[in-house]
Amino acid sequence: MSGNDTGYEHADRGASDPPGPRPNKSPPNRFHVISDRIRPRLKTIGAAITAIAAIGAVVGGFAGYWSAWRAVKSEIFHDQRDQQKSAATQPGTVPRLSLVVLPFANLNNDPEQDYFADGITTDLTTDLGRIPGAFVIGRGTAFTYKQKKIDPKLLGSELGVRWAVEGAVRRAADQIRINVSLIDLATGGEFWSDRFDGDRPRLAELQDEIVARLSRSLSVKLIEAESRRSERQKNPDAVDLAMRGWAKHHETPRTRDSTLQALELFDSALRLDPDNADAMVGKSWNLVIKTINQWSQSPGEDVRHATELIDKALAKSPSSAAAHTVKGQILNIGRPEAALFELDAALEIDPNFTPAYITKGTAFTLSGRAREALLPLQIGLRLSPKDPAAYLMHFQLCHAHVHLKEYAEAIDQCRRATNLNPVFWLPYIDLIVAYDSLGRPEEARQALADLYRVWPGFTVQRYQKLVYSFSTNPQFRREFDDILLAGLRRAGAKEQ
Q: Nearest Cα to 270, choosing from 318, 298, 305?
Protein backbone atom coordinates (compact mmCIF):
# COMPACT_ATOMS: atom_id res chain seq x y z
CA MET A 1 0.00 0.00 0.00
CA SER A 2 1.19 3.51 -0.56
CA GLY A 3 1.66 6.22 1.99
CA ASN A 4 2.41 3.99 4.95
CA ASP A 5 1.16 0.98 3.04
CA THR A 6 -2.04 2.66 1.97
CA GLY A 7 -2.08 1.94 -1.79
CA TYR A 8 -1.11 -0.80 -4.17
CA GLU A 9 2.53 -0.35 -5.10
CA HIS A 10 3.91 -3.50 -3.52
CA ALA A 11 1.15 -6.05 -4.09
CA ASP A 12 1.65 -9.04 -6.41
CA ARG A 13 5.43 -8.65 -6.49
CA GLY A 14 7.51 -11.76 -6.88
CA ALA A 15 11.18 -12.65 -6.55
CA SER A 16 12.08 -10.78 -9.72
CA ASP A 17 10.59 -7.54 -8.45
CA PRO A 18 12.85 -4.60 -7.62
CA PRO A 19 14.09 -4.07 -4.09
CA GLY A 20 13.54 -0.71 -2.51
CA PRO A 21 12.95 1.13 0.73
CA ARG A 22 9.59 0.60 2.32
CA PRO A 23 7.58 3.54 3.62
CA ASN A 24 7.72 4.54 7.27
CA LYS A 25 4.66 4.12 9.45
CA SER A 26 2.92 6.44 11.74
CA PRO A 27 2.19 5.01 15.20
CA PRO A 28 -1.08 4.31 16.89
CA ASN A 29 -3.05 6.82 18.90
CA ARG A 30 -3.18 6.27 22.67
CA PHE A 31 -5.35 9.03 24.07
CA HIS A 32 -8.63 10.65 23.02
CA VAL A 33 -9.09 14.39 23.65
CA ILE A 34 -12.71 15.51 23.47
CA SER A 35 -14.28 18.98 23.37
CA ASP A 36 -16.30 20.44 26.22
CA ARG A 37 -19.10 20.76 23.71
CA ILE A 38 -19.53 17.00 23.44
CA ARG A 39 -18.31 15.77 26.83
CA PRO A 40 -21.76 15.79 28.53
CA ARG A 41 -23.17 13.85 25.63
CA LEU A 42 -20.36 11.31 25.81
CA LYS A 43 -21.16 10.60 29.46
CA THR A 44 -24.59 9.40 28.48
CA ILE A 45 -23.68 7.49 25.34
CA GLY A 46 -20.22 6.18 26.22
CA ALA A 47 -21.49 2.78 27.25
CA ALA A 48 -23.64 2.59 24.15
CA ILE A 49 -20.67 3.33 21.93
CA THR A 50 -18.69 0.49 23.44
CA ALA A 51 -21.62 -1.88 23.19
CA ILE A 52 -22.37 -0.99 19.60
CA ALA A 53 -18.71 -1.33 18.67
CA ALA A 54 -18.52 -4.73 20.31
CA ILE A 55 -21.63 -5.93 18.50
CA GLY A 56 -20.21 -4.57 15.24
CA ALA A 57 -17.01 -6.55 15.69
CA VAL A 58 -18.91 -9.75 16.48
CA VAL A 59 -21.10 -9.58 13.39
CA GLY A 60 -18.42 -8.53 10.96
CA GLY A 61 -17.29 -5.28 12.32
CA PHE A 62 -17.95 -2.43 9.99
CA ALA A 63 -21.45 -1.04 10.54
CA GLY A 64 -21.46 -1.23 14.35
CA TYR A 65 -18.50 0.84 15.32
CA TRP A 66 -18.96 3.25 12.41
CA SER A 67 -22.49 3.99 13.66
CA ALA A 68 -21.02 4.59 17.09
CA TRP A 69 -18.66 7.21 15.76
CA ARG A 70 -21.38 8.94 13.78
CA ALA A 71 -23.13 9.43 17.12
CA VAL A 72 -20.31 11.56 18.53
CA LYS A 73 -19.77 13.88 15.56
CA SER A 74 -19.38 17.53 16.51
CA GLU A 75 -18.71 20.80 14.80
CA ILE A 76 -15.28 20.80 16.41
CA PHE A 77 -14.07 18.23 13.90
CA HIS A 78 -15.30 20.35 11.01
CA ASP A 79 -13.52 23.40 12.46
CA GLN A 80 -10.27 21.49 12.59
CA ARG A 81 -10.72 20.13 9.08
CA ASP A 82 -11.15 23.70 7.83
CA GLN A 83 -7.86 24.59 9.50
CA GLN A 84 -6.07 21.61 7.93
CA LYS A 85 -7.50 22.54 4.51
CA SER A 86 -6.40 26.15 4.88
CA ALA A 87 -2.86 25.15 5.88
CA ALA A 88 -2.60 22.70 2.97
CA THR A 89 -3.93 24.99 0.25
CA GLN A 90 -2.12 28.07 1.60
CA PRO A 91 1.43 26.90 2.43
CA GLY A 92 2.31 30.27 3.98
CA THR A 93 -0.39 29.85 6.62
CA VAL A 94 1.00 29.24 10.11
CA PRO A 95 -1.84 28.11 12.40
CA ARG A 96 -1.79 29.66 15.86
CA LEU A 97 -1.69 26.34 17.68
CA SER A 98 0.87 24.66 15.41
CA LEU A 99 3.77 22.60 16.73
CA VAL A 100 6.22 19.79 16.24
CA VAL A 101 7.26 17.23 18.88
CA LEU A 102 10.98 16.67 18.34
CA PRO A 103 12.44 13.23 19.14
CA PHE A 104 13.18 13.03 22.85
CA ALA A 105 16.77 12.37 23.81
CA ASN A 106 17.66 9.06 25.43
CA LEU A 107 19.81 9.90 28.45
CA ASN A 108 20.60 6.27 29.27
CA ASN A 109 23.51 6.16 26.79
CA ASP A 110 22.14 2.79 25.74
CA PRO A 111 20.88 2.51 22.14
CA GLU A 112 18.74 -0.42 23.22
CA GLN A 113 16.62 2.07 25.17
CA ASP A 114 15.98 4.33 22.17
CA TYR A 115 12.64 2.62 21.58
CA PHE A 116 11.41 3.90 24.94
CA ALA A 117 12.25 7.58 24.29
CA ASP A 118 10.91 7.26 20.73
CA GLY A 119 7.70 5.71 22.00
CA ILE A 120 7.09 8.58 24.42
CA THR A 121 7.74 11.09 21.62
CA THR A 122 5.24 9.29 19.40
CA ASP A 123 2.61 9.17 22.14
CA LEU A 124 2.91 12.88 22.85
CA THR A 125 2.61 13.66 19.13
CA THR A 126 -0.63 11.71 19.06
CA ASP A 127 -1.95 13.22 22.30
CA LEU A 128 -1.29 16.80 21.25
CA GLY A 129 -2.77 16.14 17.81
CA ARG A 130 -6.11 15.48 19.48
CA ILE A 131 -6.28 18.87 21.19
CA PRO A 132 -9.08 20.83 19.50
CA GLY A 133 -7.62 23.30 17.02
CA ALA A 134 -4.08 21.88 17.10
CA PHE A 135 -1.97 21.49 13.96
CA VAL A 136 0.76 18.94 14.71
CA ILE A 137 3.57 17.93 12.35
CA GLY A 138 3.61 14.19 11.66
CA ARG A 139 5.94 11.75 13.33
CA GLY A 140 7.71 10.85 10.09
CA THR A 141 8.91 14.40 9.51
CA ALA A 142 9.68 15.06 13.19
CA PHE A 143 11.99 12.06 13.38
CA THR A 144 14.13 13.33 10.50
CA TYR A 145 15.51 15.80 13.07
CA LYS A 146 16.61 13.08 15.48
CA GLN A 147 20.08 13.70 16.97
CA LYS A 148 20.53 16.84 14.86
CA LYS A 149 21.46 20.32 16.01
CA ILE A 150 18.46 22.52 15.32
CA ASP A 151 18.11 26.25 14.70
CA PRO A 152 14.65 27.04 16.17
CA LYS A 153 13.87 29.92 13.80
CA LEU A 154 14.87 27.89 10.77
CA LEU A 155 12.81 24.95 12.02
CA GLY A 156 9.73 27.13 12.35
CA SER A 157 10.23 28.44 8.81
CA GLU A 158 10.82 24.98 7.32
CA LEU A 159 7.77 23.37 8.89
CA GLY A 160 5.44 26.37 9.10
CA VAL A 161 4.78 25.99 12.84
CA ARG A 162 5.04 28.25 15.90
CA TRP A 163 6.11 25.88 18.67
CA ALA A 164 8.40 22.92 19.30
CA VAL A 165 8.23 20.43 22.13
CA GLU A 166 11.54 18.85 23.05
CA GLY A 167 12.69 16.71 25.93
CA ALA A 168 14.75 13.89 27.33
CA VAL A 169 14.02 10.57 29.01
CA ARG A 170 16.03 8.72 31.63
CA ARG A 171 15.01 5.26 32.80
CA ALA A 172 16.54 3.33 35.70
CA ALA A 173 14.83 -0.05 36.10
CA ASP A 174 11.16 0.93 36.62
CA GLN A 175 11.89 4.58 37.51
CA ILE A 176 11.33 7.17 34.79
CA ARG A 177 12.26 10.84 34.58
CA ILE A 178 11.02 12.96 31.67
CA ASN A 179 12.21 16.52 31.07
CA VAL A 180 10.06 18.58 28.70
CA SER A 181 10.45 22.08 27.22
CA LEU A 182 8.20 24.20 25.02
CA ILE A 183 10.16 26.37 22.58
CA ASP A 184 8.83 29.51 20.90
CA LEU A 185 10.22 29.09 17.38
CA ALA A 186 9.76 32.77 16.52
CA THR A 187 12.25 33.83 19.20
CA GLY A 188 14.12 30.58 19.85
CA GLY A 189 13.45 31.05 23.55
CA GLU A 190 12.21 28.50 26.06
CA PHE A 191 8.62 29.33 26.93
CA TRP A 192 8.08 26.63 29.56
CA SER A 193 9.85 23.59 30.98
CA ASP A 194 9.19 21.00 33.65
CA ARG A 195 10.29 17.62 34.99
CA PHE A 196 8.05 14.60 35.53
CA ASP A 197 9.00 11.60 37.69
CA GLY A 198 7.26 8.28 38.14
CA ASP A 199 7.52 4.54 37.75
CA ARG A 200 6.84 2.48 34.64
CA PRO A 201 3.25 1.49 35.53
CA ARG A 202 2.49 5.24 35.73
CA LEU A 203 3.83 6.03 32.26
CA ALA A 204 0.39 6.83 30.82
CA GLU A 205 -0.36 9.14 33.76
CA LEU A 206 2.95 10.95 33.27
CA GLN A 207 2.14 11.49 29.61
CA ASP A 208 -1.31 12.84 30.50
CA GLU A 209 0.31 15.25 32.96
CA ILE A 210 2.76 16.48 30.32
CA VAL A 211 -0.01 17.11 27.79
CA ALA A 212 -2.09 18.92 30.43
CA ARG A 213 0.83 21.20 31.35
CA LEU A 214 1.64 21.91 27.72
CA SER A 215 -2.00 22.73 27.05
CA ARG A 216 -2.14 25.18 29.94
CA SER A 217 1.07 26.82 28.75
CA LEU A 218 -0.44 27.25 25.28
CA SER A 219 -3.64 28.67 26.82
CA VAL A 220 -5.63 25.74 25.52
CA LYS A 221 -8.14 24.09 27.79
CA LEU A 222 -7.48 20.36 27.78
CA ILE A 223 -10.67 18.65 28.69
CA GLU A 224 -11.17 15.20 30.12
CA ALA A 225 -9.68 12.49 27.90
CA GLU A 226 -10.81 8.96 27.29
CA SER A 227 -7.36 7.37 27.55
CA ARG A 228 -6.22 3.78 27.65
CA ARG A 229 -4.44 4.25 30.94
CA SER A 230 -6.17 1.37 32.72
CA GLU A 231 -5.37 -0.98 29.86
CA ARG A 232 -1.75 0.08 29.70
CA GLN A 233 -1.27 -0.18 33.46
CA LYS A 234 -2.61 -3.71 33.41
CA ASN A 235 0.67 -5.30 32.35
CA PRO A 236 3.71 -2.99 32.03
CA ASP A 237 5.78 -5.75 30.42
CA ALA A 238 3.20 -6.14 27.64
CA VAL A 239 3.22 -2.36 27.14
CA ASP A 240 7.01 -2.44 26.88
CA LEU A 241 6.94 -5.23 24.29
CA ALA A 242 4.32 -3.35 22.25
CA MET A 243 6.53 -0.23 22.31
CA ARG A 244 9.43 -2.34 21.02
CA GLY A 245 7.15 -3.70 18.30
CA TRP A 246 6.20 -0.21 17.16
CA ALA A 247 9.86 0.84 17.13
CA LYS A 248 10.62 -2.07 14.80
CA HIS A 249 7.53 -1.23 12.74
CA HIS A 250 8.85 2.29 12.15
CA GLU A 251 12.30 1.22 10.94
CA THR A 252 13.27 2.62 7.54
CA PRO A 253 13.67 1.04 5.07
CA ARG A 254 11.17 -1.61 6.00
CA THR A 255 12.28 -5.17 5.26
CA ARG A 256 10.79 -8.62 5.52
CA ASP A 257 12.95 -9.30 8.58
CA SER A 258 11.93 -6.10 10.39
CA THR A 259 8.27 -6.86 9.72
CA LEU A 260 8.58 -10.41 11.06
CA GLN A 261 10.45 -9.11 14.12
CA ALA A 262 7.69 -6.59 14.78
CA LEU A 263 5.10 -9.37 14.55
CA GLU A 264 7.06 -11.46 17.06
CA LEU A 265 7.16 -8.56 19.53
CA PHE A 266 3.43 -7.88 19.18
CA ASP A 267 2.75 -11.61 19.62
CA SER A 268 4.83 -11.62 22.81
CA ALA A 269 2.87 -8.63 24.13
CA LEU A 270 -0.44 -10.36 23.39
CA ARG A 271 0.68 -13.54 25.13
CA LEU A 272 1.20 -11.49 28.29
CA ASP A 273 -1.93 -9.40 27.80
CA PRO A 274 -4.43 -10.65 25.19
CA ASP A 275 -6.45 -7.43 25.58
CA ASN A 276 -3.64 -5.00 24.70
CA ALA A 277 -5.22 -2.98 21.88
CA ASP A 278 -1.92 -1.35 20.85
CA ALA A 279 -0.44 -4.77 20.18
CA MET A 280 -3.57 -5.84 18.27
CA VAL A 281 -3.35 -2.80 16.00
CA GLY A 282 0.38 -3.28 15.50
CA LYS A 283 0.07 -6.95 14.66
CA SER A 284 -2.82 -6.33 12.26
CA TRP A 285 -0.91 -3.55 10.50
CA ASN A 286 2.17 -5.73 10.04
CA LEU A 287 0.12 -8.66 8.79
CA VAL A 288 -1.21 -6.34 6.09
CA ILE A 289 2.33 -5.22 5.26
CA LYS A 290 3.48 -8.82 5.12
CA THR A 291 0.67 -9.70 2.72
CA ILE A 292 0.97 -6.63 0.47
CA ASN A 293 4.71 -7.15 0.05
CA GLN A 294 4.27 -10.81 -0.91
CA TRP A 295 6.15 -12.04 2.16
CA SER A 296 3.24 -14.20 3.31
CA GLN A 297 3.00 -17.94 2.68
CA SER A 298 -0.76 -17.78 3.37
CA PRO A 299 -1.99 -14.29 2.41
CA GLY A 300 -5.69 -15.11 2.69
CA GLU A 301 -5.26 -16.40 6.22
CA ASP A 302 -3.11 -13.41 7.21
CA VAL A 303 -5.71 -10.93 5.92
CA ARG A 304 -8.47 -12.78 7.79
CA HIS A 305 -6.39 -12.75 10.96
CA ALA A 306 -5.61 -9.04 10.50
CA THR A 307 -9.32 -8.31 10.09
CA GLU A 308 -10.25 -10.27 13.22
CA LEU A 309 -7.57 -8.47 15.23
CA ILE A 310 -8.50 -4.98 14.06
CA ASP A 311 -12.20 -5.60 14.69
CA LYS A 312 -11.36 -6.75 18.21
CA ALA A 313 -9.13 -3.70 18.74
CA LEU A 314 -11.91 -1.39 17.54
CA ALA A 315 -14.44 -3.05 19.83
CA LYS A 316 -12.08 -2.50 22.78
CA SER A 317 -10.76 0.92 21.73
CA PRO A 318 -13.12 2.57 19.22
CA SER A 319 -11.27 5.89 19.68
CA SER A 320 -8.09 4.65 17.97
CA ALA A 321 -7.46 6.54 14.73
CA ALA A 322 -4.72 4.06 13.88
CA ALA A 323 -7.13 1.13 14.21
CA HIS A 324 -9.69 2.77 11.92
CA THR A 325 -6.90 3.54 9.44
CA VAL A 326 -5.67 -0.06 9.41
CA LYS A 327 -9.24 -1.22 8.87
CA GLY A 328 -9.40 1.23 5.97
CA GLN A 329 -6.17 -0.16 4.54
CA ILE A 330 -7.62 -3.67 4.60
CA LEU A 331 -10.82 -2.48 2.93
CA ASN A 332 -8.79 -0.62 0.30
CA ILE A 333 -7.95 -4.04 -1.12
CA GLY A 334 -11.15 -4.59 -3.04
CA ARG A 335 -13.61 -2.34 -1.15
CA PRO A 336 -12.27 1.23 -1.35
CA GLU A 337 -15.72 2.82 -1.04
CA ALA A 338 -16.16 1.13 2.35
CA ALA A 339 -12.65 2.21 3.35
CA LEU A 340 -13.69 5.87 3.13
CA PHE A 341 -16.08 5.50 6.07
CA GLU A 342 -13.30 4.12 8.26
CA LEU A 343 -10.92 6.89 7.25
CA ASP A 344 -13.50 9.57 8.03
CA ALA A 345 -13.84 8.01 11.49
CA ALA A 346 -10.06 8.07 11.94
CA LEU A 347 -9.85 11.75 11.01
CA GLU A 348 -12.70 12.72 13.29
CA ILE A 349 -10.71 11.19 16.13
CA ASP A 350 -7.34 12.66 15.14
CA PRO A 351 -7.34 15.33 12.42
CA ASN A 352 -3.52 15.26 12.43
CA PHE A 353 -3.08 11.55 11.65
CA THR A 354 -1.12 11.59 8.39
CA PRO A 355 -1.56 7.91 7.37
CA ALA A 356 -5.35 8.38 7.34
CA TYR A 357 -5.06 11.25 4.84
CA ILE A 358 -2.79 9.20 2.58
CA THR A 359 -5.03 6.15 2.75
CA LYS A 360 -8.06 8.33 2.09
CA GLY A 361 -6.47 9.84 -1.01
CA THR A 362 -5.76 6.36 -2.32
CA ALA A 363 -9.33 5.23 -1.55
CA PHE A 364 -10.82 8.19 -3.43
CA THR A 365 -8.85 7.40 -6.59
CA LEU A 366 -9.73 3.69 -6.37
CA SER A 367 -13.38 4.71 -5.93
CA GLY A 368 -13.43 6.67 -9.20
CA ARG A 369 -13.26 10.03 -7.38
CA ALA A 370 -9.76 11.18 -8.31
CA ARG A 371 -10.55 14.90 -7.96
CA GLU A 372 -11.41 14.36 -4.30
CA ALA A 373 -8.12 12.52 -3.73
CA LEU A 374 -6.03 15.67 -4.13
CA LEU A 375 -6.91 17.53 -0.93
CA PRO A 376 -6.27 14.76 1.63
CA LEU A 377 -2.93 14.02 -0.02
CA GLN A 378 -2.00 17.71 0.07
CA ILE A 379 -2.92 17.83 3.76
CA GLY A 380 -0.78 14.76 4.40
CA LEU A 381 2.22 16.48 2.83
CA ARG A 382 1.58 19.66 4.81
CA LEU A 383 1.43 17.69 8.05
CA SER A 384 4.59 15.72 7.29
CA PRO A 385 6.58 17.35 4.46
CA LYS A 386 9.83 15.52 5.22
CA ASP A 387 8.25 12.17 5.91
CA PRO A 388 10.27 9.16 4.65
CA ALA A 389 7.02 8.19 2.91
CA ALA A 390 6.68 11.55 1.12
CA TYR A 391 7.56 9.92 -2.20
CA LEU A 392 4.41 7.82 -1.86
CA MET A 393 2.28 10.89 -1.26
CA HIS A 394 3.73 12.57 -4.34
CA PHE A 395 3.05 9.44 -6.38
CA GLN A 396 -0.59 9.26 -5.25
CA LEU A 397 -1.01 12.92 -6.23
CA CYS A 398 0.55 12.12 -9.61
CA HIS A 399 -1.72 9.11 -10.06
CA ALA A 400 -4.85 11.15 -9.29
CA HIS A 401 -3.77 13.80 -11.83
CA VAL A 402 -3.27 11.10 -14.49
CA HIS A 403 -6.79 9.81 -13.86
CA LEU A 404 -7.96 13.41 -14.34
CA LYS A 405 -5.86 13.77 -17.55
CA GLU A 406 -3.92 16.62 -15.92
CA TYR A 407 -0.64 15.43 -17.31
CA ALA A 408 1.64 18.41 -16.62
CA GLU A 409 0.69 18.33 -12.92
CA ALA A 410 1.16 14.56 -12.91
CA ILE A 411 4.68 14.83 -14.31
CA ASP A 412 5.65 17.36 -11.64
CA GLN A 413 4.45 15.10 -8.81
CA CYS A 414 5.86 11.87 -10.24
CA ARG A 415 9.26 13.51 -10.76
CA ARG A 416 9.22 14.52 -7.10
CA ALA A 417 8.49 10.88 -6.23
CA THR A 418 11.32 9.46 -8.36
CA ASN A 419 13.78 12.06 -7.06
CA LEU A 420 13.00 10.99 -3.50
CA ASN A 421 13.08 7.27 -4.29
CA PRO A 422 14.57 6.29 -7.69
CA VAL A 423 13.84 2.56 -7.19
CA PHE A 424 10.11 3.02 -6.61
CA TRP A 425 8.54 1.66 -9.80
CA LEU A 426 4.97 2.97 -9.93
CA PRO A 427 5.72 6.64 -10.81
CA TYR A 428 7.50 5.55 -13.99
CA ILE A 429 4.24 4.06 -15.29
CA ASP A 430 2.40 7.33 -14.83
CA LEU A 431 5.31 9.25 -16.36
CA ILE A 432 5.21 7.02 -19.45
CA VAL A 433 1.50 7.71 -19.90
CA ALA A 434 1.74 11.45 -19.16
CA TYR A 435 4.67 12.05 -21.50
CA ASP A 436 3.04 10.01 -24.28
CA SER A 437 -0.24 11.89 -23.85
CA LEU A 438 1.55 15.25 -24.13
CA GLY A 439 3.36 14.19 -27.33
CA ARG A 440 6.79 13.81 -25.72
CA PRO A 441 7.86 10.37 -27.03
CA GLU A 442 11.56 10.56 -26.13
CA GLU A 443 10.77 11.23 -22.47
CA ALA A 444 8.14 8.47 -22.54
CA ARG A 445 10.77 6.02 -23.85
CA GLN A 446 13.19 7.07 -21.12
CA ALA A 447 10.54 6.55 -18.44
CA LEU A 448 9.83 3.10 -19.92
CA ALA A 449 13.54 2.25 -19.76
CA ASP A 450 13.59 3.43 -16.13
CA LEU A 451 10.61 1.20 -15.35
CA TYR A 452 12.34 -1.89 -16.76
CA ARG A 453 15.50 -0.96 -14.87
CA VAL A 454 13.73 -1.05 -11.50
CA TRP A 455 11.31 -3.87 -12.41
CA PRO A 456 12.61 -6.00 -15.29
CA GLY A 457 9.59 -8.31 -15.12
CA PHE A 458 6.96 -5.63 -15.69
CA THR A 459 4.19 -6.40 -18.19
CA VAL A 460 0.91 -4.67 -18.97
CA GLN A 461 -1.09 -7.77 -18.09
CA ARG A 462 0.62 -8.22 -14.75
CA TYR A 463 -0.01 -4.57 -13.89
CA GLN A 464 -3.66 -4.89 -14.93
CA LYS A 465 -4.17 -7.96 -12.75
CA LEU A 466 -2.60 -6.19 -9.79
CA VAL A 467 -4.69 -3.02 -10.06
CA TYR A 468 -7.93 -4.86 -10.83
CA SER A 469 -7.53 -6.70 -7.51
CA PHE A 470 -7.85 -3.38 -5.71
CA SER A 471 -10.99 -1.95 -7.28
CA THR A 472 -13.99 -3.05 -9.28
CA ASN A 473 -15.39 0.50 -9.38
CA PRO A 474 -16.64 1.11 -12.97
CA GLN A 475 -15.41 4.71 -13.17
CA PHE A 476 -11.96 3.77 -11.86
CA ARG A 477 -11.71 0.83 -14.26
CA ARG A 478 -12.72 2.99 -17.24
CA GLU A 479 -10.08 5.59 -16.40
CA PHE A 480 -7.49 2.91 -15.76
CA ASP A 481 -8.20 1.09 -19.04
CA ASP A 482 -8.59 4.16 -21.26
CA ILE A 483 -5.72 6.21 -19.82
CA LEU A 484 -3.15 3.99 -18.09
CA LEU A 485 -3.34 0.73 -20.05
CA ALA A 486 -3.89 2.44 -23.41
CA GLY A 487 -0.99 4.79 -22.78
CA LEU A 488 1.37 1.97 -21.83
CA ARG A 489 0.48 0.07 -25.00
CA ARG A 490 0.98 3.14 -27.20
CA ALA A 491 4.40 3.65 -25.63
CA GLY A 492 5.43 0.07 -26.44
CA ALA A 493 5.35 -1.58 -23.00
CA LYS A 494 5.51 -5.40 -23.02
CA GLU A 495 2.05 -6.92 -23.05
CA GLN A 496 2.86 -10.22 -21.27
A: 305
What amino acid is encoded at 111 in this protein? Answer: P
- Please give the Cα distance from 301 to 458 (Å, whole number): 27
Strand partners, 105: 168
Give the type of residue at 146: K
How far is residue 462's CA from residue 469's CA, in Å, rounded to a whole number? 11
Q: pLDDT digits over 57-83, tens only? A: 333 343 444 343 343 344 445 556 666
Rounded-to-integer distance, Cα 343 and Cα 24, Å: 19
Task: Give, rounded to a whole angstrom, the gap between the first and last alpha carbons of the chain.
Answer: 24
Instruction: Kindly tell me the sign of the dihedral angle through the C-alpha atoms of 140, 353, 296, 245.
Output: positive
> Which residues are registered as beta bridge partners of 192?
182
Query: 3-state class of 103 per DSSP?
Result: coil
d(CA 114, CA 105): 8
For the chain, give the number of residues.
496
Apex 266 CA angle, 108 and 330, nearest 5? 125
**Out of 20-24, 109-113, 293-297, 327-331, least confident range:** 20-24
- In Å, how far are 59, 217, 229 from 97, measured between CA atoms? 41, 11, 26
